[in-house]
Amino acid sequence: MATTATTMRSSSGLSTDWLEFDRQSEPLDSWDAEEDSILTPEDEEMELDEGEGDGDAAPKLAKKKPPKLEESRSKKEHVNVVFIGHVDAGKSTIGGQIMSLTGMVDKRTLEKYEREAREKSRESWYLSWALDTNQEERDKGKTVEVGRAYFETEKKHFTILDAPGHKSFVPNMIGGAAQADLAVLVISARKGEFETGFDRGGQTREHAMLAKTAGVKHLVVLVNKMDDPTVNWDLTRYNECKDKILPYLKKLGFNPLKDLTFMPVSGITGQGLREPIDAATCPWYQGPAFIPFIDELPSLNRKTDGPFIMPIVDKYKDMGTVLMGKVESGVAKKGTCLLVMPNRTQVAVDQLWSDDEEVTSVGPGENVKIKVKGIEEEDVSPGFVLCDASNPIKTGKVFDAQVVILEHKSIICAGYSAVMHIHCAAEEITVKALICLVDKKTGDKSKTRPRFVKQDQVAIMRIECSGLICLEQFKLFPQMGRFTLRDENKTIAIGKVLKVVE
Question: What separation in angstroms does the CA of 468 have from each of 95, 342, 414, 471?
Answer without folding.
Answer: 37, 7, 20, 10
